[in-house]
Amino acid sequence: MRFNSVQFLVFFPAVVLGYFVIPQKLKNVWLLAASYYFYMSWHPVYALLILFSTVSTFFCAVLIEKSRTQRQKKLFLAVNIAMNLAILFYFKYFNFFVESVVSLFPAIHLSKNNNMIAVVGISFYTLQSLGYSIDVYRGSVEREKSFLNYALFVSFFPQLVAGPIERSKNLLPQLRQTYKFDYDRVTDGLVLMAWGFFKKLVIADGAAKMVDLVYNEIYSYSGLAIIIATVLFAFQIYCDFSGYSDIAIGAANVLGIKLMRNFFHPYFAKDIDDFWKRWHISLTDWLREYIYFPLGGSRKGTARKYINILAVFLISGLWHGAAWTFVIWGALHGIFRIINAVKMQIVKNSPTIKKLYGNSLYGVLKTVITFFIVDFTYIFFRANTLRDAFYAVSHLFDGIGNVFNAGYFTAALTEVGFFDVGGVRIAGCILFMLCVELWEGKSTVPDRINKCAVPIRWAFYYSVMLLILFFGNFGQSRFIYFQF
After folding, report:
1. How far apart are CA 459 and CA 436, in angstroms?
2. Which of 53, 84, 163, 212 is deepest in the core (most CB within 10 A)?
3. Distance between CA 116 and CA 283 in Å, rounded?
4. How many CB atoms lie within 10 A of CB 417?
5. What is the dihedral of CA 243, 244, 248, 254, to 10 degrees?
């Protein structure tokens, strides 16, 4: 069930209504049933897979708690991690593995499973479940005694399919509490959901038409057309994914549950490190806590630190998709992170450069440079094949000397369908979104709106709702991160 479907518009109010009218002792039963229904609406077999992850990690925690030796704890944790990663590997990476092996070693005869079902959200709930097991092993959280609460922790429908990837220490305690209807909290949740729908339906789905036109026929385009499509993809993926997160966080807030913030104005980042503090924050947090630090982090010298950074981003790339394009995307981010670390060391050791680095005008330049670095990596993220990506990169600057020629620029916009699908409107909505992000500062949209006078508040509400109603694409398009 997609958030942008008619089915969800019926499902969510029904869940909320039921949640606030049934007895307290049945609330989590209701939410668990709703969550499984939500997930099974894609495919019934999904319930078996998430149930396996839930049962295995729950009883792994039980065995860890009852173990008398550290060796036994390590064994139970290792077996549980292996089982869950094996399921993830089979459903997400098996065919990619076969293709890669056969391409490298043609003499080896392996066959893909062409009947493999695509399991929505498996990467998200697998990481969340494993994070809980590791936390129990480390002793940073107590084992959850209620299987019902733990099952809801794994399958909670707002964030089940595309995050945020919640930590057990944040979400599990909330699932043990009592929540009553609160008008202000519900209103804030609905406002955030509306903002998420605006980003998804108006900006992401609108930009997708131009991006797909170019990237699905990449060999028919070059130069400025590819650049325009790639810049638009930056906003498509951001509004698609952060839009989902806003809807998820808002929906949970309506029910009284606080999910972690997953995005914080990433395109205003000053460097690539800053970008990853703002983009998909829950994944960054998970990778840092459960992979980077166990590898040694920065504790084992500079060279080892750089190796660890690269390893983490290679894993991040592979997590995003079973294709070499994603691996290269992750590798590029790892390399840029290493370059940035070297640069910051130089800045630290040079008072002159440090002073320049702190200049506000240079800060704007840093933001622009960071955006274009990130946007360049998106070529590999969006390209359908590695060959397509290399073509786009090699033809990225074809005819770029004519970029300031109004006729050339207009021709490129026409070529990508900018004027056919309301590109001016989409560009205006992107500008509106960026202005709102600057305006809200470190707060969230609902918090910032609540500080405004009533006329401004309602002007914002009506503006967003009218933009969705008049310009939203209601074709139930898939959220990009569902495939991960």
Report:
1. 13
2. 163
3. 26
4. 17
5. 40
Contact 215, 388 (CB under 8 A): yes
Contact 445, 191 (CB under 8 A): yes
pTM: 0.92
Supply the DSSP symbol for 477. Answer: P
Nearest residue to 478 via CA among 37, 13, 161: 161
pLDDT digits (tens, 9 = 90+) for 440-465: 888 889 999 988 888 998 999 999 99
b/e for 276-315, b at 16 or more Cβ within 10 A? bebbbbbbbbbbebbebeebeeeeeeeeebbbbbbbbbbb
109 as an active site residue: the answer is no
Whole-angstrom distance, CA of residue 84 vs CA of residue 320: 17
Mean pLDDT of the 148-158 span = 95
Percentage of the chain beyond pLDDT 70 is 97
Largest CA distance in the chain: 76
Torsion sign (Cα): 204, 207, 212, 215: negative
Reduced to 3 states, what is the DSSP secondary structure of residue 211?
helix
Catalytic residue among 43, 320, 333, 395: 320
Q: What pLDDT, on the 0 to 100 scale, is given for residue 355?
A: 67
Alpha-carbon gap, residue 155 to 48, rounded angstroms: 12
- The structure tokens listed for 431 are 């500008």
User: What is the per-residue burial (b if ≥16 Cβ within 10 Å, else e) of 223-237?
Assistant: bbbbbbbbbbbbbbb
Residue 259 CB: number of other CB atoms within 10 A?
22
DSSP string, 357-423: HT-HHHHHHHHHHHHHHHHHHHHHHH-SSHHHHHHHHHTTTTTGGGTT-HHHHHHHHHHTTTTTTTH
DSSP letter string over 423-465?
Answer: HHHHHHHHHHHHHHHHHHTTS-HHHHHHTS-HHHHHHHHHHHH
In this structure, of 150-159, 250-259, 295-304, the range with the lowest mean pLDDT score is: 295-304
